[in-house]
Amino acid sequence: MKNTRGRAALGDDFFGRSAELADLVDSLRRDNILLLAPRRVGKTSLMHAAGRSWAVDGDPVLFVDVQGAASEMQFVRRLASAMDRSGGEGLVKSAWNRLSRVLRPVGKVGGNAGPIGLEVELRSASEEDWLATGDALLRALADRETLLLIDELPLLVQQILTSDREGGRDRAKAFLDALRGWRIDPSLSKVHWLVAGSIGLDSLARRHGFSASINDLVLTALGAFDDRTARGMLDALAAGHGTTFDDDARAHLVRRLGGWCLPYYVQILFGEARALAQAGSVDIATVDRAWATLLDADHRSRFDHWWTRLGESLSTPDAERAHALLRHLATVEGGLGHDEARARTMGASLDEEARDRWAFVVDTLTSDGYLLEEDGRLRFRSPLLREFWMERVR
Predict the structure, then answer these.
(1) N or C terminus: which one in the chain shows less Cβ crowding within 10 Å?
(2) Last residue of a domain, which of 264, 294, 324?
(3) What pTM was estimated for this model as a whole?
(4) Which of 141, 106, 110 is nearest to 123 (CA)?
């Protein structure tokens, strides 16, 4: 097993999710799925694995990554590009025939067989053509059991919301309504959707009041590894790299992760420990040095996305409240009682609107993996993230 830090784990490097994978693929045969999980838990790796499993029967799989897309038409172009890459000549030709009824064609169909493909055809389309062209592409998929893997859809919705101050909410709702319309259309029942992203689409929809636009999606949660699986990953990594992890060091690393063993954290801690190991042997002291290395100034960029995403996914006032709450919680290892945390962050006396904002911030931080709410207390879900936050706010 390779030490994969930052990229999706593919093929033999996909580890520890066999049960989740089997359940997910089985569910996708019946339902469209919204995969909910905090950052760095391995959503994209699981999506790729689901695609490989689906394709075993010869059915089409389209992976559509919309990170960086900024409009509805860019979503359609990303879909077209995925069809060019993976759809096959027959599907591309069918899609082109449908597009030709909507747009003036600019050349022959290319797809995988030539230099001009569907994405090129769509360069002649205007932004207002997204609904008609998207419909044409999706209807070309209607005859085969097709799996659509849509990664980072919430980021695109967020971009639509923030890029158009006056009409962003209406545009975002219309976009999500259109996606829902396609998903529930009986004539498109052979197109199966798996949607995911590094911010929660469910919390984003709740915040802006269009939860009904995604209510057809079945919510499926993906959590961290349990301790046993995390130890198994360390064993597989050690075997793949000729490294020795003694039992105490392995247990110590998992214990330091505090019950929140994200695959990414296991990978980066293994990588640092391996780099620091003497003669390829990792002991407890090496694990502690690796932990400290990850938190030094030269390595904090691995965690900065947790900081910056608050400003991207929340309004400025809510982002300020979230930062204040996390700053308070970072100073207390066991966390704070709910009432005390709220008083420190927003004051002791709150009107109904302020209480609603507080509840929304806590809900967002919990669903996005920052916090754990347990027995009336709030605390960081990850000890590693808490220590990063302490260093960041000093």
Answers:
(1) C
(2) 294
(3) 0.88
(4) 106
